[in-house]
Amino acid sequence: ERHDLIFSRPCRMQTLCVFLILAICGSALGSFLQKQQTDFGLRVFSEASRSQPGKNLAMSPYGISSVMGMVQLGAYGSTLKTLQAHMGYSLQERGMPRQQRILQRDLDSEHGVEVASGVMVDRKVILEKHFRRSLSKAFQSVPHQVDFSQPEITQQVINSWVSDRTGAMIPNFLQSGVLSKQTRLVLLNALHFHGLWKTPFDPKLTMEMLFYGANGSVVPVPMMRTTQKFNYGEFVTEEGVDYDVIEVPYEGDSLSMLLVSSFDRDVPVSNLIKELSSSKVQEWTKQLKKVNRQLVLPRFSIDSEVDLKSTLSTLGLGDIFNQAKADFSRITTEEPLCVSDILQRVKIEVNEEGTQGSSATAAIIYSRMAVEEHILDRPFLFLIQHKPTDSVLFMGQINQPQSH
Fold this sequence. Notes:
Elements lengths: L14 E7 L10 H19 L6 E3 L1 H13 L3 H11 L8 H13 L4 E10 L6 H11 L4 E3 L4 H15 L17 E14 L10 E6 L5 E19 L5 E8 L5 E8 L7 H4 L4 H10 L1 E10 L1 E8 L1 H9 L20 E13 L3 E5 L14 E3 L4 E7 L4 E8 L6
Parallel strand pairs: 1-5, 1-12, 3-4, 10-14
Antiparallel strand pairs: 2-16, 3-5, 5-13, 6-7, 7-8, 7-10, 8-9, 9-15, 11-12, 12-13, 15-16
Helix pairs in contact: 1-2, 1-9, 4-5
């Protein structure tokens, strides 16, 4: 599924462009910051999914909270208070930049995960010392000078930065016309994940099966299958919807994919999305038990582009886009700034060997033995989590698998 980006008209005053690129990351073990970031990222996904019923959608909760954290470092006055209130944490508070740095370090040190933060600033802008120091402390990022008076050239610079840090999965992140001579700053977070399943699916067992899509469609898709012991649990939502969670581990065991689906084919995934919170994900992982299962999972890939402006505005953060109200004087006092766009692009490929994501989506499974089957032949959610930090790197809803 490909979502077209809708670009807003830039603010009339100078604009601060924030570009959210996929992120696969986590945070200091069980820290307050990680929990609040995960909750915020899940809320953004939940809100964005409301406008995509019946479609595939993938996002990176970690990437969203990282870039919004960078935005927060430049905010002042009522803009800062609004960001703190709706995000549930402040990176301007004592000790928080260090927690952010440790979280990013823990994720980046994980085999198969690459995390990077970038700051592209117009060469004419003089950044406040405190903002530069905070970026360095929290994100280990040093501003890179560019020339926004030549937006097409700068677009190429940014796109190659992203491509280099996403295993070339996202070669053209910014489209022509997104940057302008009014752009002063672009804040970036890139995340790349390449994980092999702990137990790969045997391609010889992959076969076409029917998938019952969200819109009532029934289509044949390649279904992978494997029989092994999985962590598995059954749960009930507050509204009485029965669903289950199965965990598929990646090599090394510190990363895994959680597959969440309702028992009943007719229940939309939106009923399960309502359940999402960092404490709910922790509750799942604590209560899962080892069972022998034959897992049947579609091979799938997702390419999502999301403009988060309307989503964040609905969540109460509209002031950052408002030229009359936005206060980013911690970035520079030379001219007023506001945010023009917050964009995220996530690409995920799930196959028999594992998952590659520059943001996220995956599912796969099938069998030879008379073991109870777990067939994901209906819409489901997936979350890719970093278990040591409980960070959700990627998540998505699969309403209609697409494989290439």
